[in-house]
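Throughout this review, each integer encodes one residue's backbone shape. One record appears below.

===
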Amino acid sequence: MISSSREREPDLRTALLDLGFESVRPEPVHLEDTILPTGDHKLVVDRRAMSTRVSIAAIHHSRHLLEDAFGRAFEEMERLIDVLSRFEQASAVGVLNSEGRLTGPPPELVYLLDRSAALHRATDGAFDVTVQPVVDLLHRSQEVAGGGAPDPLEWRDAMDRTGADALRVSPTRISFDRGGMGITLDGIAKGYIVDAMAAVLEVHGIERYLIDAGGDIRACGGREDGAGWLIAVRDPRHGGLVPGSLRLRAGAVATSGGYEARYDPDGSWHHIVSSRSGRSPTAVLSVTVAGPSVYSADALATATLLMSPREGVRFIDSLPGFECMVIDAAGRQARSAGWAGLTATSQEEGER
């Protein structure tokens, strides 16, 4: 989910800005700053953004270069949040959702909407960025918050305002065919932003790094002991670790689950919604996808969550370069054919 501290108190923030106060971004926090036996520097910095902690760990012989690269990467993160966040009224997505059209859209938004449309087709409509009206309804519904179902008339109205077929995208203009529509890029934008941060690090010559944005992860090279980065997948039921951590030297991992933003007490309604049924998936608790980029892994994890476990694994198995692990409502795991090849050994897990 792309969010910020500005999401929580928009009216107060607007009033303060009108009075001349400046918006202040949270400063990055240094978690580790060490010189390794090799003489290389290891720097770990994190920052609150997108409703989570975004951390960068990297190794390089120049600490000054690490500092500069980290600063540039966080700047790129903030720039893209200001383009893609649905919580920012002045962002490109915010303007599109409020006005129903956007002239001269940023190329990043056009690209993500084009990729979203391709994924919509590939998943037979399971992945749909136009479900924002339904998500908004679930978020504000007192009936849902109390453990019930949303008002039937309001729910039907929200469903009538969804549909990827009514979203028009071109390099010069984005618009909706129906009034009251909106998009949410929660299932793809955070991964895209992490990929963009990784590109900044690589432009600066950083070849050993790990970026983690609340489970959307991009890795390159090895850590200080020469081994690949060790990544543990969150258990959606208990917050522990799922057996079988991943060892990653290059590529991405993303996890999607309804536990991230529940709207009712038992999680029957959450921020991931099927445009076909108008309901949140409950048969699957979480999906972790590994692949070459975070944005693709992020989007595929969201799409697979909307399928049955067997259907989801079969879908990922059909895509070269991607693997997945699906955890169903009973805690059972279903894994793609090549998932075991990414899994770290129990001895490696003990060395983490």
Confidence is low (pLDDT under 50) at residues 3-24. The radius of gyration is 20 Å. The longest strand covers residues 41-49.
